Amino acid sequence: NSIISAASSPKALKTQVETLGFQHLDLEVTVPRVVIFRDAIIDLFDMEMGARFTSKAKLGFTALLNYVGGAYIYIRREYAGRIKIINSSWRTANNKAADFMDQIEGEGEEGEGGEGEEGKEGEEATKEAADTAAKEAQAQGNARASGDARASGEAKNANNMKVPT
Question: Based on C-alpha coordinates, what's the Rg of the chain?
Fold first, then answer.
């Protein structure tokens, strides 16, 4: 239905056929299969519509189905290899990230048992950093509430920047 609706606009038809072509990359679309599918659809229309399925309509649907089938073949031939490379790269990157995260978690688990005082110091430093961040956020909130804030969130300060003249 979407292909028929887009048939009056070449640009829209191309976009619709490309979209459907990418959705059908998992199918092995070949010329003989396109011919079988096209002929089956044309025969179905011919049987169901009878005399109302004119030779002009038959030619139009044949051309449209040939275009769609050819586009599916083209998309698969031109883009399937590229998409496989992208998927492979994505899997490799995700595996490396997972390995990296496993390594970090492994080091964290190894260090937790024998750290003693060092572990407490790290926790205190983390808590201090969180407290500092909370105080800065509160100060920005107070500056915004008083109207002394810029759109970027900085408080107004005329002496903040010195420009050489």
Answer: 32
CB atoms within 10 A of CB 53: 16
**Distance, CA of 45 to CA of 57 (rounded, Å):** 10
* Interatomic CA distance for residues 142 and 120, integer angstroms: 33
Cα gap 136→143, rounded to integer Å: 11
From residue 52, give the alpha-carbon distance in Å to each of 45, 56, 64.
9, 10, 18
CA 88 to CA 67: how far, in whole Å? 31
Q: Which residue has tokens 């509160």? A: 138
Mean pLDDT in order along the chain per 10 residues (165 residues) = 88 92 87 95 94 93 94 88 85 80 70 49 54 55 48 49 56
